[in-house]
Design brief:
Number of strands: 4
CATH topology: Rossmann fold
Oligomer: single chain
Number of helices: 5
Strand content: 15-25%
Strand order of the largest sheet: 3-2-1-4
CATH superfamily: von Willebrand factor, type A domain
CATH architecture: 3-Layer(aba) Sandwich
Structural class: alpha/beta
CATH class: Alpha Beta
Length: about 140
């Protein structure tokens, strides 16, 4: 059971490459729906959300640090610029690393990844993905 002083943090990792531009509205709606659903399920628990939006081709992710104001998250999503990603696979690694770098302080943690394409990696393009494996395993430990 949780205490009303506990915090649940949700980090939304969002693919913001050009191919996702057609999903802008559904992404915003699903994020808001997720926040509302969690708030309803855990009534009284403080919910904080962060957004890490990644592109492709070495562009650093855009990060909104944790906030307890859903309207701030929604405004951030409305202002995202969708570009890059000239190939089928995307730089999911930078999104995962960005999620590791946000300020996780809550007792309960959740990550939601929203994308329309798989990650770069051996299976897709022959690009070896191991340099992120240790960081990703750390991500799984904190969630």
């Amino acid at each position: 059971m949780y205490a009303l002083t506990d915090v649940l943090q949700i980090c939304f990792i969002v693919d913001s490459t050009l191919s996702m531009q057609k999903y802008v509205k559904p992404v915003q709606e699903r994020v808001v729906d997720t926040i509302t659903c969690v708030q309803n399920k855990y009534n009284g628990l403080t919910i904080e959300c962060a957004v890490v939006s990644y592109k492709d081709g070495g562009i650093l992710p855009e990060v909104l640090e944790f906030t307890d104001e859903p309207q701030t998250v929604e405004a951030h999503l409305q202002n995202l610029k969708y570009n890059g990603g000239d190939d089928f696979t995307e730089d999911v690694e930078s999104g995962m690393k960005g999620a590791l770098d946000v300020k996780w302080t809550g007792k309960y943690k959740m990550v939601v990844h929203i994308t329309d394409a798989p990650s770069h990696g051996d299976f897709y393009k022959g690009i070896y993905f191991s340099r992120c494996c240790e960081d990703v395993s750390n991500l799984y430990q904190i969630t």
